[in-house]
Specification:
This protein is α/β, with parallel strands linked by helices. It has four domains: 207 residues, 3-Layer(aba) Sandwich (Rossmann fold), CATH 3.40.50.300; 59 residues; 204 residues, P-loop containing nucleotide triphosphate hydrolases (Rossmann fold, 3-Layer(aba) Sandwich); 47 residues. Helix content is 40%, strand content 19%. It contains 18 helices and 18 strands. A six-stranded mixed β-sheet has the order 5-6-7-3-8-9, sandwiched between helices. Helix 11 packs across helix 12. The protein starts with 6 loop residues before the first strand and ends with a helix. 37% of the residues are buried. GO terms for molecular function: ATP binding; ATP hydrolysis activity. Keywords: ATP-binding, Coiled coil, Nucleotide-binding, Repeat. InterPro entries: AAA+_ATPase (IPR003593), ABC_transporter-like_ATP-bd (IPR003439), ABC_transporter-like_CS (IPR017871), ABCF (IPR050611), P-loop_NTPase (IPR027417). This is ABC-F family ATP-binding cassette domain-containing protein.
Amino acid sequence: MKNKNQTFITAENIHYHSSKNDLFKGLSVSLNQNDKVGLIGFNGSGKSTLLKIISKNLSPNSGTVTHANNLKFYMIEQHFPDSLLDFSLLDATLSVLPCDERYSSGWKAETVLTDIGFRSEHFHIKCSNLSGGQKTKILIARALLLEPNTLLLDEPSNHLDLPTMLWLEQFLSTWKGCLITVSHDRRLLDNVTNCSWIISNNTLYKYGYPCSNALIEHQKLEDTLQLQHAAEEQEIRRLESSAKQLAIWGKNYDSNSLSRKAQSMFKRIDKLKEQQCETIDDYPWYLTFLGRSLPANKIIDINNFNVQLKNSTLKLFNITDFTAASGDRIAILGENGCGKSTFLEYVWHNYVTLADNTSEIQIHPKAIMAYYDQALNRLDDKYSLIDALIMYCDFAGVSVDNETCKKALIKAGFTYNRLFSKIETLSGGERARVLLLGISLIDSHIIMLDEPTNHLDFIGKTELAEQLRAYRGTLILVSHDREFLEKVCNRFFVINNGKLIEYNDSNSAYKSMYSDSSINNHYEPQNSSVQSVPVNDKNDDELLKRLFVLEELLQEDKRRKNKHQKPALQAIWHKEINEINKLLNLN
């Protein structure tokens, strides 16, 4: 009889310290067969390190990691391997297999790539020409080809556009194997996981809930620890006062008895301090974006403008009519490569070059604008944090002095010694914090943010969302994080079919973008099964899309040599095609 709760991975008494600090002290955790785990923690808390340790790609300083004999896992890392960039899609997928299996598995790789949304004409495109979302799909294709029973994913949603994010969510929610995913996307974790591991203060806390409920329970624990810590502090102060008084009396009255009691009490105090519970460290977020409003109906006004690639005549999309006023918090949505970032660059260029009133892009002449670019290139690598911050504000037309920048950087969590480090020494998360700090120093009328949550953890995103909701000026935001968008924005635009279109709400905008990519994984995880959504649960549009995909799969397979065809799959596809035809009365 099979053990339904078999343990796949066990980590015991793990200690690990990096060059900067201790990450884990006596950490123990196990991954069971049916677990879908969300791994949560602040930036720098050790989430990626823990994934590497439990996958045995990194050795801890002490402790053991044990894998079950039938564990078959694949790790999807945060960054696409440079070694695969010169490979075609097909070759990059096949390269995960041993050399002697690649030729005979070509048909299988093609089927996997087709199932996750690629067409046969894409198979020979170089991976270096792919978007971030497409590269993530290639990593998933490599995993499916190996048929693992466990997936380890490190920030799989980073740099994805919203359609690909929706695709990833659907894929992971139908995955019947085991998984651990590191992510700062609360919506994704809520929809694909059934339990959570939260790393905090070098300790791992386990909860049997998805992300949102787990964070609520963890907050309750933090509140309890704070109360317990405060009570212990009060008791320690009381004992210290008594011990000091006894020591003074013992000295003044030459009483050995009182002196011994004082010494005994001091030892008790030391023991209490050793046993005192640890509280959760405060989060270093001290940024505000108050902004200013302008008494005008139109802060930004764009008419009949073509957004096109720089140094190219290729048109990405057309803006027929776009206006923004103070208080508008606008979301710009669309697929990777559709022109979202290019649009923001055009508006910024118009602002800094002081384009005249004949331009198709009109910005209120009194408006001050701040801009956060996705690549974080607004900060110059060769300058110190202080100088780069001064230059950033100056470029936006606002002067700040050296002392103001120093105080702001220290308040934002940077130590005094770090203030004179060059920007190039910062991590992605630290660069993001400096750039957001620059925006907070600019008392602006307009803020443009291009994927500001890519380098922020849960608390950072929550704090930023609260600040932006209170912003009094005009906000234009590009983001793939649905919860963040819904908290912040009150207007929603989608770039689709070469046009910028406004929708009444976020759900309408999402539906306009969502393409029901086939995610029928025919390569079931070991000891698990992948079930497709029942045909009769879909509407007519979805059925037609599914019918088209099935017929394309069938024709692709029939074009192969007989020995490479898959009769069993063809039978499944034929059966589903017949069911759809009946539902649509196409027979």
